[in-house]
Specification:
alpha/beta; Rossmann fold; eight-stranded mixed β-sheet; binds zinc ion
Length: about 270
């Protein structure tokens, strides 16, 4: 079995079988040979940290909660604003002004009351990242800035927890998985670009549907990791260009001397 649900965080795993309501709820995924009751119990025992409850975190969190992942830690220090709503369907008009993490927890608990949501109105920074991300089976990065993505990469490698990192800008999106041992985000991109060198969604714009695609892909990769099925997007970056409708997958090696994953080969 893969690291994933087995490493999980020591919480009560619950009954060894699914109850009739869970069998009904998850019936379409239970019939998948790769999931089944055993996989569903793994999801129920699993915990995922979601960094950023915005454009990428919205679809990622919705699909992970809907699929029955037992515990979600929602990390975001921002509040819901009107200009979030076109691309952050986790939030609604009733949540304007509320913390995004709290708004996310409220919505996800309505979607699936069995999911334990922990809402943290915190910004992930080097001083708290190790403590906030430890104890999870997977980390989903839905942040909107390079320093946070590099931080998630470095801390995930240090903790030995896989991370699914996504990004969107204008009409382009990408996803990669950083598995323990690398190759990693830093192998691909080197150092965070100087502030202002690369545009942000605020200046370059983005359509919500693109973030929906990329965030959903992140949820799918996280589910694969938790279930121990398929081949994760590790050492490969999946790119999507919406205007042409083209998908492209680019393999990349571990960078020689990478300071984040170089010393963790296994
Ligand atoms: Zn690396």
């Amino acid at each position: 079995m893969r690291a994933g649900a087995d490493r999980a965080s020591g919480a009560d795993p619950g009954p060894a079988r699914l109850d009739p309501a869970a069998v009904e709820r998850y019936s379409r995924q239970l019939v998948l040979r790769e999931v089944g009751e055993r996989g569903q119990l793994r999801l129920r025992a699993a915990s995922v940290a979601i960094v950023g409850c915005g454009a990428l975190g919205s679809p990622a969190a919705l699909y992970l909660a809907a699929a029955g992942v037992g515990r979600l830690t929602l990390i975001d220090d921002d509040a819901v604003s009107l200009d979030n709503l076109p691309r952050q369907p986790l939030h609604d008009e009733g949540a304007l002004g509320a913390g995004k993490a709290q708004s996310a927890a409220r919505r996800l608990s309505l979607l699936n009351g069995a999911v334990q949501c922990r809402a943290l109105r915190r910004r992930l920074v080097p001083d708290n990242a190790g403590a906030l991300l430890a104890g999870h089976d997977c980390i989903v990065d839905g942040s909107d800035n390079f320093p946070t993505k590099f931080l998630v990469n470095d801390v995930a490698l240090a903790l030995g927890v896989p991370a699914v990192i996504g990004g969107v800008l204008a009409f382009r999106g990408q996803v990669l998985v950083v598995a323990p041992g690398g190759p990693c985000y830093r192998c691909l991109f080197g150092e965070p670009p100087p502030v202002g060198r690369v545009g942000s969604c605020r200046t370059a714009g983005v359509l919500g549907a693109l973030a929906g695609i990329i965030g959903s892909l992140q949820a799918m990769e996280a589910l694969k990791l938790l279930l121990g099925i398929g081949r994760p997007l590790a050492g490969r970056v999946q790119e999507y260009e919406a205007l042409s409708g083209r998908w492209r997958q680019v393999p990349f090696p571990r960078a020689a001397g990478c300071p984040a994953c170089g010393g963790h080969s296994r």
